[in-house]
Amino acid sequence: MKTESPVREKFLPVSLPQIDQEEIDEVVDSMKSGWITTGPKVMKFEEKFQDYFNVPHAVALNSGTAALHISYLTAGIGPGDEVITTPMTFAATVSMIMLAGAKPVLVDIDSATLNLDPNLIEKAITLKTKAIVPVHFGGLPCDMDAINAIAKKHNLKVIEDAAHAVGSEYKGKKIGQISPFTCFSFHPMKNLTTAEGGMVIAHSEEDAEQLRLLRFHGIDKDAWKRYEKKGSARYGVHQLGFKYNMLDLQAAIGLHQLDKLAQFNHRRAELAQLYLGVLSDVENIILPPISPADSVHTWHLFPVQFDIDKIGKSREVIMDELKAENIGTGVHYEAIHLHPYFGEALKYERGAFPKAEFMSDRVLSLPLFPKMTNQDVADVVAAIKKVLG
Ligand SMILES: Cc1ncc(COP(=O)(O)O)c(C=O)c1O
To answer: Which of 32, 38, 43, 358 has the fewest CB atoms inside 10 Å of its own CB, making it the most exposed?
Structure first.
């Protein structure tokens, strides 16, 4: 029996980083210099990030997870506190709240934005609530005016999980310019990568100082200089801290990625528009929300929800069938409370957050990354049409 050939010959992954010769040369330069750990390139990357975002402090770290962890601690979150966030996020948003000793309290999403629904936040506030952690899902900014109004009224801290939102804007402000803490991730899938890495933007000198202490064993910020002739070999540990510092090897990549961020995000937006156009007449799929005119979306993800009841196939079957057509996809996300650990630890059962669950069962992220061609988009759409019959 003759088997039908797949829509495309070569596998198209859901995401690929764009690493050009300048990133490679900069890493080689660090390698040859002998300075491969935290050093001058990390300082340069932080300064460049501060200038780009027009913010007073940027603290570079070895992951977005580390950024969340030490931001929570610096915001004073600890045992006995509750922190409100969304179920539609990566585990790190929630697990770092728990590792800071506090209890995550989830509120459902707004299906129109896929972000946490500000109208549900006040009902979740108790005397123990300390902070709100909005996650800009896929790069579409949360309703920060509504969230900040609630935070102000109840004296809560706002820590933004902006892992998806490097370059997003909300009402004319860059994400990073709004809250006391904004956390970015530079994982290879993200809009800007340093292989692995993260950054916290902080607005007060005191917070920035505390973040720098926590990132490296509680040792003062210029500790790396002690290996230089002009530095002092002595150092002091001022408190307990972590080993969360970014390497010069990572910053070397980031320095050039930042130069291309606007270009990367522009191409992502072009591809998203292309998808939105060609998928608009495909039945039984819900397309991702677009941002209001006063916001800028980074299109980190292109999440499509498949109407599995009408299609008669589960999301997993659709995913496998797309893979057979050489199209990679991702699940962003399985709702937090549906993971075995979080469901049990936080005592949430299925039914607790119906909108997040609806999405969790149906969502697939389609391939979206700057190097993709228009033909790649056409292949994805052809494969979807084939799989949906
Ligand atoms: C929403 C969200 N928060 C936090 C993180 C953690 O970032 P990292 O992987 O850099 O630790 C991620 C990464 O996937 C994420 O998507």
So the answer is: 32
**What is the Å distance from ligand 1's center to 87 Cα?**
14
Q: Which residues are catalytic, by number?
A: 190
Total count of domains within the chain: 2
Same domain, 227 and 191: yes
Whether residue 226 is found in the same domain as residue 151: yes
Report the b/e string of 292-323 with b at 16+ CB within 10 A: eeebbbbbbbbbbbbebeebebebeebbebbe
Cα 222 to averaged position of ligand 1 atoms, centre (Å): 27
Q: What is the pLDDT of residues 298-341, one digit of tens each?
A: 999 999 999 999 999 999 999 999 999 999 999 999 999 999 99
Q: What is the tens place of the pLDDT at every residue in 104-138?
A: 999 999 999 999 999 999 999 999 999 999 999 99
Q: Range of 160's domain?
A: 21-258
347, 254: one domain = no
- Whether residue 63 is contained in a domain is answered as yes
Residue 106, beta-bridge partner list: 85
Q: Residue 129: inside a domain, yes or no?
A: yes
Q: Is residue 357 in some structural domain?
A: yes
Strands 157-161 and 181-185: parallel
Domain-located, residue 16:
no
Q: What is the CATH number of the domain that holds 312?
A: 3.90.1150.10
